[in-house]
Amino acid sequence: MSDTKVEEEAPEALQWLFDMLDCHDRLLDREHQMRLFRLAVEKQMHGRQHCWTQKERLYMALTDCELTSPEERCDLALWSSYTLRLAELKDINKQVAIRTEHLQRTSTMDSDIDDIREHLYEKACNMAIDHFACAVPLSIATAKNPSVVLDDNAGCCPICRNSYTALSTSNVDTDTEDDSRMEELLDLLADFPVRIKYCGHIIGKACLEQWMVIPKLDEHKYDNRTCPMCRVEIEGVDAPEMPQGLRKHLRKDAGAVETARELMQGYDVDLDECFYLILACMSEEIACEELLAAIGDTDKDADVLRAQLANLREEKWAWGFSDDGLWMQLRAEWMGSGVGAASEGTGNSG
């Protein structure tokens, strides 16, 4: 590369270097920086300098003990920035802005954590089925069961006969109609199809919850409640196995531990109910996403469902799920467990 080209691009590399150092100073604590530097030194001690990351290479240049003056170390760091073409990476200032926004959002959520936990307590008081039933994709709930000659339950709850997705077709032009439309959407969410893990039957959630509290007709004959569609017991039996890793997360993650402690000590919620709250959040998120994909055809419909998803994100954050990696893994495991989960032929009628 010509000297002229170097002179043209060197200022850009220098600015990137200063921005990087400023970014580290503002956003990384000293422990984080020392850990990064320690890893780079360990690689050097084992002759693995070629494995240095770009950040590690930059740090080693800035701390090279063979260079006696800060100016020499800065020159070497600048040359590293230039030769590695770090200036061609994403604008570091943009990354700082994104990170700063995240920190501000987290700070806001910190101030709202008491409200979130109060909401979780209210949910815990009303949970009845979330430990043994999970929301299912609408494609499964609306499929006809090939083992039944006439499957009238496809696409609707077998108890109340209401459709899982039907909304009125009236235009939402007035405040009254707007409120009515929102109520319809919330009703669909409340009665979204869930699969009972003990037997595989799919029933609207609200109807199943109601089934769990109405007086039993043959209490002398059946000690525990059974599935509304069959005689499989859904009460007084061991809860289905939860996703692997969920117990570990609730035991290891600082945010999850703190939320569980607050609920257990401040609201008298037991540990199992903490797990069930997370499972309930998974089901509700599935329901919102499925309905958003199926009927979120107007801005107002979509806004209602997105608002519900935003509330669920706050719950996930309170339980220590700051990103979707582990969360989606555990959610898929929970949705895919239980009787009938592996077969899309599992219908409402059994």
From TrEMBL:
Q: Does the keyword Repeat apply?
A: no
Q: Which domain of life is it from?
A: Eukaryota
Q: Which UniProt keywords apply?
A: Metal-binding, Zinc, Zinc-finger
All copies of the RING-type domain together span 157-231
Q: Which PROSITE patterns match?
A: ZF_RING_2 (PS50089)
Residues folding into a coiled coil are none
Q: Which Gene3D superfamilies match?
A: Zinc/RING finger domain, C3HC4 (zinc finger)
GO MF terms listed in the record are: zinc ion binding
Q: What is this protein called?
A: RING-type domain-containing protein
Q: Which organism is it from?
A: Decorospora gaudefroyi
